[in-house]
Amino acid sequence: MVLTPRDNRSFEFMGCLEIRQLLGKKADNELQLLEFIEDAPADCIYYHTHSYFLRHFYLAGQYPNDFANWAVLQVRDRVLGEKLGMVTPSGKKTLEDIRSELIEVIDSHLSSIKIIPAVVNGEPFYFMESRIIEVPMGLSASDLGSFIEAMRVVHASSIYNHIFESRLRVKKGKSDFSIWLEEVLGMNDLADQIEKIDCYMYSLEDLRSKITGLCERRL
Amino acid sequence: MTVGLKGVSLESYRDVAPAGAIDLIYGLARPLEGRSMRHINSTRYGGGVAEMLHRLIPIFNELGVKTGWEILKGTDLFYKTTKSFHNALQGDRQLITREMFDEYVKVNKKNTSRIDLDADLVVVHDPQPAALVEKKKKKKRWVWRCHIDISKPYRNVWNFMRDYVTRYDGAIFSLPSFAQRLAVPQFLMYPSIDPLSEKNMELTEEEIAAELVRLEVPADRPIILQVSRFDKFKDPLGVIEAYQMVKKYNDCVLVLAGGGATDDPEGAQVLSMIKEIAERDEDIYILDLPPDANRAINALQRAATVVLQKSIKEGFGLTVAEAMWKGKPVIGGAVGGITVQIVYGRTGYTVNSVEGCAYRIRYLLNNPAVAAKIGDNARDYTRRNFLITRHIGDYLALMTKMLEDK
Q: In this structure, which of A130, A218, B225, B350 has its CB flanked by the most CB atoms within 10 Å?
């Protein structure tokens, strides 16, 4: 099957670098965590639920957000950790939806126990936010073949940028990959398959393999 | 004094950096071509900061960012003062006289007339040259790069330093826990290791074996290694205790390699204590190495079966990344930067006790497949997070942001 682009808009791969900024706030117990999440800038919520992927390109960790990992590893509260681990920004959730869900989970957990769990031997939770600098990678694709070629070699931050940044921070609601496959190549079903991947369950390298695999099956 | 440098080209890192990382750096540097950056610190040789600047600056220049390095010139009293500042900012109570504060200001002031401070971005490293900010021009961007932990400073000195720090456009810390609350933006930037330096470059099996022979370390049994200063915070006595627990189950040798005991009375005391224990066990090797023993450390890390960094207080602890880069499973104390380098159970183990350390050594010695898998993960994790290529990108990204915010 020969694929011809519907128009001449090629896909330009953009990598990214993250500048991490400390907010000067920390939580030593779960109530302080809750209170700061209520007022935190949206970029802070985004950082602690997404930046994880940029730090762990290759390793899929225990839970896909910093709040859950802190509860488990530093406070040693496995129950809250498990509950927070399920707060993943899949579907059509906005950052405010994620914030509300985090608040609800912690609030309900604290309501059910008598003593507020706090850090004893571990580290406090340090609140941070990040700013993404986009970088042109000098790679572009005009059809599915060249898209696959580029996907194989592009810096993993490009995969992060076109999936997570595109969906939530840039608020396109979809990955750039799906939008391009749909709008330029007219491959709506392939775009749907990519959108159905539960991205929060994979590392960036896993996502690279998954997306490339789906595309290869269409060649 | 302006430092002239000759370094390794960025392309040399293509084979060791993650896929696409070098192209990412080129892309990031392109809009910054022709802009200028100036780094200022107080020493040309010795210490991690100078070591890293020697490598970073030629690469920034190769990328078209005109980068210079200036060294502050001080007096004996100035260096005595800044040594006290250094200790005070890390929490030690220090006696600092009015004369010492005055000398700090006087030396910085004097240097403003001889150091070229005209650059788009000026990066001032650590407390010694921090007061140069008095000469900051309004349109130029200045950041203070703090390499030490100032979270619990001796207030007298911090109150004095804060007046300078808050005149910067931002401050950079190596860990969130090292920072202070400040009225200026605070950024996080991990330090890095250079995979092509003598301490981290590839060595052949023959070269490793030759170094072990030279150091008189046997290669016929698993080696448990800790590389660090002979300092109580690195817990060498705890390491020996853990080794003694393991030794009841597994035949192995312990190597404690380090230095720093010559200029530190407390270090000399620690060294003498561990030497006394080592005299009673022929499988404990204490190597008091000179500061330039990079090749020896490289070979030891490559020959080791398990590497320890069982600190009870730590800065960033880059020896962990050095060992991880060599594909070794590392067991580290759950303190400082060790916790960001070791992802528990994936790239090593963090431990909180001698028993925890002993258990994990035994586990790794008896499960070589697990140790190999953890070592592979550790190398890859270091490749992506703690190599100089990531550090170059961080500085360029910061420069982009600082110049955009002007």
A: B225
Secondary element (H or E) of residue B121: strand B121-125
Contact criterion met (CB < 8 Å) for A154 and B20: yes
For B297-351, write each residue's pLDDT tens digit.
Answer: 999 999 999 999 999 988 899 999 999 999 999 999 998 999 999 988 999 999 9
Each as own residue / partner, the long-range contacts of residues A62-65 (CB below 8 Å, 24 or more positions apart, any chain) are A64/A88, A64/A200, A64/A201
Preferred mutation among A133, A152, A159 to probe B, highest tally of B CBs within 10 A: A133
Domains B10-192+387-404 and B205-385 share a fold: yes
φ/ψ of residue A48, rounded to 5: -80, -10
Q: Is A202 on the interface with B (CB under 8 A)?
A: no
Q: Report domain extents, chain B.
A: 10-192+387-404, 205-385
Chain B residues in contact with A21 (beta carbon < 8 A): 185-188
C-beta atoms of B186 and A59 within 8 A: no
Protein fold of B10-192+387-404: Rossmann fold (3.40.50)
DSSP string, chain A: -----SSS-PEEEEEEEEEEEEEEEEESBHHHHHHHHHH--HHHHHHHHHHHHHH-SS---SSSSHHHHHHHHTS--HHHHHHHHT----TT--HHHHHHHHHHHHHHHHHT-SS--B-SSSPPEEEEEEEEEEEEEEEEESSHHHHHHHHHHS-HHHHHIIIIIIIIIS--SS-HHHHHHHHTS--HHHHHHHHHS-GGGS-HHHHHHHHHHHHHTT-
Count CA atoms closer than 13 A to A123's CA, side-chain side.
20
Reading the block at residue B199, the tokens are: 């301490």
pLDDT of residue A2: 38
CATH H superfamily, domain B205-385: Glycogen Phosphorylase B; (3.40.50.2000)
Q: How many CB pairs under 8 A join A and B?
A: 95
Mean pLDDT, residues B250-257: 97
Q: How far apart are CA A130 and CA A147, in angstroms?
A: 29
Looking at residues B71-75, what average pLDDT do you find? 93
- pLDDT for A5: 46
Instruction: Render pLDDT for B42-57 as a digit per residue (tens, 0 to 9).
Output: 988 777 888 899 999 9
Residue B260 has pLDDT above 80, yes or no: no
Which chain A residues contact residue B26 at CB under 8 A?
Answer: 138
Instruction: Output the pTM of the full model.
Output: 0.91
d(Cα B32, Cα B55) in Å, to the nearest integer?
19
| A87 in reach of chain B (CB within 8 A) | no
Cross-strand partners of B293: none
**Strand pairing class (A125-141; A11-27):** antiparallel
pLDDT of A57 higher than 70: no
Kindly list the residues from chain A whose CB atom is less than 8 angstroms away from the CB atom of residue B394.
17, 19
- Give strand pairing partners of B350: B332
Q: Do A96 and A42 touch, CB atoms closer than 8 A?
A: yes
The count of other CB atoms within 10 Å of the CB of residue A18 is: 22
Residue B187: pLDDT over 70: yes
